[in-house]
Amino acid sequence: MLTKFETKSNRVKGLSFHSKRPWILASLHSGVIQLWDYRMGTLIDRFDEHDGPVRGVHFHKSQPLFVSGGDDYKIKVWNYKLHRCLFTLLGHLDYIRTVQFHHEHPWIVSASDDQTIRIWNWQSRTCISVLTGHNHYVMCASFHSREDLVVSASLDQTVRVWDIGALKKRSGTAAPVDDILRLGQMNSDLFGGVDSVVKYVLEGHDRGVNWASFHPTLPLIVSGADDRQVKLWRMNDTKAWEVDTLRGHMNNVSCVLFHARQDIIVSNSEDRSIRVWDATKRTGLQTFRREHDRFWILASHPEMNLLAAGHDSGMIVFKLERERPAFSVSGDSMYYVKDRFLRFYEFSTQRDTQVIPIRRPGSSSLNQGAKTLSYSPTENVVLICSDVDGGSYELYIIPKDSFGRGETMQEAKRGSGGSAVFIARNRFAVLDKSSNQVFVKNLKNEVVKKSSLPIVIDAIFYAGTGNLLCRAEDKVVIFDLQQRIILGELQTPFVRYIVWSNDMESVALLSKHSIVIANKKLVHQCTLHETIRVKSGAWDDNGVFIYTTLNHIKYCLPNGDSGIIKTLDVPLYITKVNKNTIHCLDRDGKNRDIIIDSTEYVFKLSLLKKRFDQVMSMIRSSDLCGQAVIAYLQQKGFPEVALHFVKDERTRFNLALESGNIQIAVASAKEIDEKDHWYHLGVEALRQGNAGIVEYAYQRTKNFERLSFLYLITGNLDKLSKMLKIAEVKNDIMGQFHNALYLGDISERVKILENAGHLPLAYVTATVHGLHETAERLAVELGDNVPSLPVGKSPSLLVPSSPLICGGDWPLLRVMRGIFEGGLDNVGRNAEEEFEETADADWGDNSDIVDGENLQNGDVSSVKDDGDVHEEDEEVGWDLEDLDLLPEIDTPKTANNTRSVFVAPTPGMPVSQLWVQKSSLAAEHAAAGNFDTAMRLLNRQLGVRNFSQMRSLFLELYMGSHSYLTAFSSAPVISVAVERGWSETASPSVKGPPALVFKLSQLDDKLKAAYRATTAGKFQEALRLFLSILHTIPLIVVDSRREVDEVKELIIIVKEYIVGLRMELKKKELQNDPVRQQELAAYFTHCKLQIVHLRLALSNAMTVCFKAGNLSTAVNFASRLLETEPSEKQRNTARQVLQAAQKNMKDASQLNYDFRNPFVICGATYVPIYRGQKDVACPYCSSRFVPAQEGQLCAICDIAVIGSDASGLLCSPSQFR
């Protein structure tokens, strides 16, 4: 049995496969109907309208319908696309056992405990026939797949076959309305209808019959009953008779049916087993058992080799046999097994030939077919492995004259072994699992060499001449049979198949849901995960791995990128990939050729390998386009290539900015002409230091504040003074003041303040900067309100520092024009003409950027320059109205047509960002400064919610993993990431993890200090140190699994001490409660402490209890103390207590303490939680609490939430391998 899908639910009473989609309906005893996708393993929908168990369910063959029947006497017809019940059919008077659609007519047949079978027309929604004759519950009823027959089984110990031919003739001519007219006649004729008559009554079972079903093609019926027997019946036109009885079930047989594609019968029973029988020999083939679940129902897929069985706690979808054909490809040909023959297929000519029969006739056991096939082309020998006798192989020498005939049966050389494979032209290796050895044999099947394997292996594969690729449970190794050493090793999921590339340089390791690509030495290259099962794969000539899942053909590039090539209707097994043709075998062993379009993955591969000439030719010649390709190019850092696929101006603009192509960005911004786009263009141009474009963008958006600042940092004082005048014209007081401040113009600032009415500020400014005449004039105006100036201060003039580069653009890196520029630029000739010559940065003196709306009478000439008014034909400042500039004059030039251009260097990704992308360790996220994700990780892994305790630790991590360099005074400080384990020999392109300030060794030192403080009785100091360790542990990173175990052990140690110390401190507060003091002292002795501290705790508890008169309890502590080999003083004290207490072994007061019953201590209430009582735990420190504390902050670690769901501590990269 090969289980494909399994669910956990209430008892499943009804099952039905969809004929086309990978869906199955399961009706439950709880009244719910579930719709599952068994291929994806997901619940698609649930339907919950029946009141009580639903015993029958069935999909319609072609319509989006299914029917259900339940214990509420109702038959419901549902539309699964509309997610609702369409209508309900009423008529049955008791539980409905089964329902089924007719394959051709609009009929439903239903069986009920009211002893009748009803046939309904679901189009007219009426009952068209009632079949009566059974005198007990009718357990099932179903239509024949071809003839006009119905079979039913009943607890009256009979199986009945009904002829509904008359009903078919009637319904063939009658309209749906006639069904309604005939309903009254039918009811009056309830016990003697003529539409459906009993053809046969099959009697033979000794008890009630639970199930009966037709053979899909032969005149056979199979039935199962409470007498634990399965009976096979044959029928002809006149009679039916019992053929044989199949015995073996140990309890009632629930369901039985014929397999749709093989001569076998499948039955299940309340004895918790599924049995498979040979329908021809009438013998048992296999039995599958469950531990605790009784089986109730079976279903067979109408077209595929799938079965489903419902049991007490869910259902399983399974196959009886493997359907993957065994094959071996050699050059242009392939040998494969189909039915009982070895066949030969030539890819180029598509010649398919039967070679030799390979299996003895009559060996029809399940799962005994060929599993793998290995071929030696030089010797023309085939090695076929199967599961016969627990694993065996057969060696066939192919005669040269056998092609085309393939009838002579030759005696194969046989042997036992888990797997066998050729390792040289005349040598093959056989795995002996029992001894974990590999036997090397010759073509005479003689052992020539034995090699013991260094690890436990369960399968071997070919890995080059003399080498084996060996599969263990969680890894694969390459083993050299000559040297008997392991050449390579790789951790992988359980590998099912391996596929070597044509040059044997790469290997694909196929697991159930993943593909691992490695080189010939098993060095990992990439891993690909799939949600649907991976079925097969092959390498193409370009080094791309093409593989199939259950429903797709996909590709995998060497870097792990994947994509879908084609959708499949049925699973296929790829045998060879030749250019655009994929050669496959289907499950029936038929060869298929599929033509694919490889443009997409060849294009991506060319990009990956930097074959830009090939990329350019593909862009020119192919219709490769679409959002997926554009997104891929952006993701992989090729936005300049994506530009050539895009016509939409907004997308072009974004891609141009991303690739730093200011030229195309300007052209697109002019087409779009929106403020937001000009702003983003200005930001990118400023990043590149292209002052001309920045100025142009700010002018287009009339962003005067940014313009002023641009002129300040570029040192363009002339234009800055003009900005001052424009602000004055626009009556923008703050703009005027800022520009005056940028210019360092004191008198202008005083004038602005005075005009704005800020006379005290104007007076202070004039006085500080030595404008005494102006200050005196303002003092007169202020009178008695003259502000006082601070004494002893030396004023200094606030003047902006000199710019680094005055005017012009920043110097850029000089590079040659790339292959994608020039040859493929489709910006247009007009755009190129705009940038014919290099522009000076001081262009655009007459640019139109100011509105005239705020001017008096709209007169631009009112702008004053040095107090004079210019004539209209002279320079009058900047026109504030018109923005229709000629591009040839006003647009800044960013490039020319030469092959050599200036390109801004592309910034790399910050190392801190790489740390975040590569790691799932909270410490490394905090070190990168990404506190948000670090906190989310800690919350998910450890349930941490109170981060206030860890704030300083986060900051220490961040500061400790970065260094800071100063360049020169006006440049910002440069932050440099400090990597862990960095060396001068390391590659600059490979970035290591962050250097962390917290180490496990530091925590060990702190633990020793805490021990010393505990010994000295400094409990507050010890508690502070233990808490510090507990708060730091989530933010350390260790290298090995052994260190991970040490960290987890450290958490337990620290937690125990914190619980004990908190109780000891609590005890000191309770001076007036001697009973509670004794309890806390007693609980302290049950913490897992160092032996020296345990002695102190026991001594303390013994003293407290003895003084309080609790002598019996004190004796217990004294005895425990003596067991710890204490000091002389402690030993004497303990013996004195024992002697004194022997006279009166009683306790003066009752304590909540029973040392005989194991317990843990609640970390919040400090009460014992005895074994068997419910408790909740902290997900981080694992402290235990009473259930009432769930959801509260842990009182021990003070950072995690009690009872929250968490995945566990992650503190090492080794936990991800």
From TrEMBL:
This is Coatomer subunit alpha. It is found in: Cytoplasm; Golgi apparatus membrane; Cytoplasmic vesicle, COPI-coated vesicle membrane. CDD domains: Coatomer_WDAD_alpha (cd22948), WD40 (cd00200). It comes from the Eukaryota. InterPro entries: Beta-prop_COPA/B_2nd, Coatomer_alpha_WD-assoc_reg, Coatomer_asu, Coatomer_asu_C, Coatomer_complex_subunit, Haem_d1_sf, TPR_COPA_B, WD40/YVTN_repeat-like_dom_sf. GO terms for molecular function: structural molecule activity. It comes from Parasponia andersonii (Sponia andersonii). Residues 817-1217 form the Coatomer alpha subunit C-terminal domain. Oligomeric complex that consists of at least the alpha, beta, beta', gamma, delta, epsilon and zeta subunits. WD repeats lie at residues 47-88, 89-130, 131-164, 202-243, 246-287. The coatomer is a cytosolic protein complex that binds to dilysine motifs and reversibly associates with Golgi non-clathrin-coated vesicles, which further mediate biosynthetic protein transport from the ER, via the Golgi up to the trans Golgi network. Coatomer complex is required for budding from Golgi membranes, and is essential for the retrograde Golgi-to-ER transport of dilysine-tagged proteins. GO terms for cellular component: COPI vesicle coat; Golgi membrane. Residues 627-769 form the COPA/B TPR domain.
